[in-house]
Every structure is written in structure tokens, then in C-alpha cells.
Sequence to fold (588 residues):
Amino acid sequence: MKAQTINAEQVKAAIEAAVPGCRVELLHNGSPSAQHSLVLDHEHAVEIAHFLRDDAELRLDFCSNVTGVDWLDTEISEKVKTKKLVDGVETEVEEVKKTTVPGRLEAVYHLFSMEMKHGPVIVRLRTGNRTDDVRVPSLTPVWRSAEFQEREVFDLYGVVFEGHPDLRRILMWDEFTDHPMRKDYVAPADDDEPLHAAAGERAR
Amino acid sequence: MSVEIAEHRMTELTSDPEGGQLLEISMGPHHPSTHGVFRMNVTLEGERVMRLKPVFGYLHRNHEKIAENASYLASIPYTDRLDYLCSMTNNWGYALSVEKLAGIAVPERAEYIRVIVAELTRLQNHASLIGFLMQDMGASGTPLMYAFREREKILDLFESLTGSRMMCNYMRFGGVRVDTSPEWLDEVRALVGRFPQFLDEYEQLLTENEILMSRTQGVGVLPRELAVNAGVTGPMLRASGVNYDIRKVDGYGVYDRFAFRVPLGEHGDVYDRYMMRALEMRESLKILEQALREIPAGPVIDPKTRLRGLRPKAGEAYGRIESPKGELGFFLISNGTTEPYRYRVRPPSLINLTVLEDMCLGRSVADVVVILGSVDIVLGEVDR
Fold:
């Protein structure tokens, strides 16, 4: 007996029916795994999470995996065909249109149901950008399993989880200032130096 | 029962006004009972634990970052070093995720070999965990040496199959690296035939041992609702009475072809966690017997499978297996290049520690050591 997979579109419809005013975006996944995900808005995220956990049909009582993803600013160039007047004649001209998609950080949650034995339902929370708007609501009050994992995302990616009971660094040491899993992170040239400096300070 | 119980931490203990001062001690990172470099900041009132905060990161090497700068194939030897007692299941979890991401099929014989090596891994992991747990309880030597004697036989088999005792680097996406010889399978059959004798002997020594029972029964109780809410998986979850084994739930590989039971505990204490391991070893033997009987002939990997320079289509996949410690998951995002854009390990050891404080509050320091021992952590996986 294999676990039932859940149709993300149906989950989206159920959320929209249960939580009025929420904005849920379905994110298509092109891989053969076909694990599509739902992007939640910040205002309703905790309410939606409660619904997902407690709804009699979904019962997603098990938040298995929480992780971060860093999306850098990306430039997408598209070829656009436009009609232009060239020497008085209307001709079709191909132009390269460049659009910049601003970077962002993402927290990804993989939800399963231990009671109904189905899953995964994947939900994502997105920050506004990668620099000063890095706050997302914490889902630890709904699933305790997110406690250490959200701390890890905070530590390695710099996503700030609002409402987390104990948001501290977990793997890096407290004096560390950067977020090493970010794509633009540059390791210090002399890899021993900062570690020793920090340790020396603490010893004093 | 209401979910609200699980939602909140267990009530913080209030100190007895006449109980004297609180004492904060740091257990670890170098402490024989912490199973590696792991620290707990414990606040004590007398012998009673009032607060316990685990401190991680002593073995952190940013495994995920390394993997994001390496090809899909190059990460396989790194996964060996996550939970270094169970390299075979680590390989499998990763291979399964890549197979999901890229849509790679696995030949039937390879699926059977995977089951065989994974269940052997489970046997040696559970046997040594029980040994370590007894060591933590003060049974110096004997139970651990018995377990290691058996573990060594399994590691010898791994060595003859893969060339390495612990860092096997054996599985590939699409199958396994080399085929087994008929002699090797006969040796496994012989081992599976002898193993129950060891288990009987081991259980005779331990299961109804009065010291073991008094040290573990009612100690470190983990309520069912809290276990589910805190994402606890593996034998620890099932000791709390939750029937959730990914081998059954997902039926990945060919696990849906084998008849085996999922042992469940009643009390969720350390004793139940010990019993889960003892019983699961017997179920593993059943799986092994069936797999060894039914293993088909055929290739172990499709020669056309692209190992070097694999470029999965842009997308993502989360694959998970029931490792001896719990749900081991790998989350991969591909952007169409030869390196994963995102590589994430869901470490069961780390997430099972979420409830460590809840289990230890109000107990004595000696109990903390036993409770930690029953969680079954490997720091290579906790810190990654």
C-alpha cells in the first residue's frame, strides 16, 4: 500500500474555501516528481497552517522537513516580436527584452499526515527581498518539528521567523555574522583566522 | 486527545523556594555519554533537571554547501559520512531523491540488493545502539562487545561487497555500483540464519534484566501527540505508539512485497525504545529472509544511466526513506545544470532531539544520559 499523493490544486481550493481573503499561489514543478507547491501569504500563513493540520480530510499533523532556498536576482531575457515602422514599412522586428526578477529567500515546508498516511503537501513562504525584508511568520507554534529547522534556516540563510520561541543560531557560533548557505557567500580567505579570533575573544 | 497538549512545551518547572540555588552545568561537548561532540546546558536544582538546552554545531562542515558545489554523483561518498554508522541507507536516501528528480528507473535486482544491505545496516545499527545504551547505563563492556562482535560480521560482508567497512559508497542513482556474487549472498544467508541466536542471547541478558527495567521504565516518557507534533520519526516515534514506518507508508523500493510487522510501544519510555530496536531486528531478519529467497537475476544498473554529468530537468524533488534512526529525507532543486541548486538533508537525529528537553525535565542527570542514549543520534548527521 503506497502513500496517497495529494493534488496540490485541491489543497489550494480547500484552503481558499476555509480561509477567506488568503492569497495562495500554485507553483508548478517541472520535474518527474511532480511535487507542486503552494506559496502562502504572510498574513494568513499561520491560520492556513492551523487549517492544514486540523482539517479532518487533510490532517497534515507531521511537518517533516523545513528548509531555506536562496534565489539570487536573475535576469531573464526573452525574445519579443514587435511590429515597428522601418523606413515607412511595418515590419516585424525581434527584440531582446530583459527583465530582472528580484532575489528572495524562501522557507519550504514538507507536510505529511501520520494519521491519514498521505503527503507531501509543500508550502512555501517568501521574503520580500534578500537584504532588509527577510521576515516571514514562524510555523513553530503549529508544528514543533519546525523549531530547530527554522533556527537552522535563520542561521544559514538569514530568514527571520516572527513568532519563533527561541530564534538563535544553531550550527554556526553566536559571534558569526554572515549566512553561509547564501549563494553569494564568500568564505574568508584564511579559513582559520576568524574562528581563532572569535575563540580568543570568548576566552578573554 | 487534544492537540493543544502537543502545541505547547511541557510546563516549565518552578523551583522549590526552599530547594536552594540553581546550578548550571555544561555536559559535553567531550563527554563519553554524548555519543560524539554534543553539548547540553543543563540547569539543575539539586539532582533535578529544570532546563536543558542542546548546543549543536561542533561537527558542522556545511555538507549541504559542499554538495551544492559538486556534481550529483560526487555527493554520494559525502552522504556516507552523515550518519557514519549507516552509510548504506544514507546512499539510498540520496539515490532515491535523485531518481525522483530525474525520473530514473532502478532494475529489480538492484532494488533487492538495496533492501538486503539496508536491512543489514539496520541490524548493526540497532545492535550497537542497544550496546551504547547499556554502556550509558553503566553496563560497561559486555553488552556493547556482544553487539560489536555481531556488527563486525556485517561490516565484513560490506567490506567484501564494497571494499569498505563503513564508508561504503555503494549505491548509485539507477541502481548499485557492483553486483553481488552468489557466495556473498550465501554468506548473508548464513548470517541471517545465525543472527536470531545472538538476539535470543542478547535479549535473555537484557530484556527482563531488573537493573535495566528499573533504570528505563517510566523514564523519558514521550507522549504520542508531542511525538507527532515534534516530527519525531523512527523507532522513537513507534515506541510512543504511532504506527508510522515509511517502508510501509511509502512502500519505496520493493518493500511492499515483503511481509513484516511494525512493532509499536505503549508507554513511550526508554524501555519501549529499547524494545523497539530489539523487535525491529527480528522483523529485519524476516525481510532479509524473503529478499534473499526472491532476489531475481538481472542487471544491477542500466548501463545507459548517466552517472557523470547528470543534468536533471529544472524542478525539485523530496525523497525519503526509513533509515534506522528515522525519516531520512533529501530535498533537491535542479536548475538544469550538473550541480544541484539546492541540496538539503532532513536529518532524523537532529529533529528527534527537539523533544530532548521535554523528556528530561524533572529527571536526574543520570537519567538524562540514558534518555539521550535512547534517542540514537550520530553527530555527523546532526551537525552535517
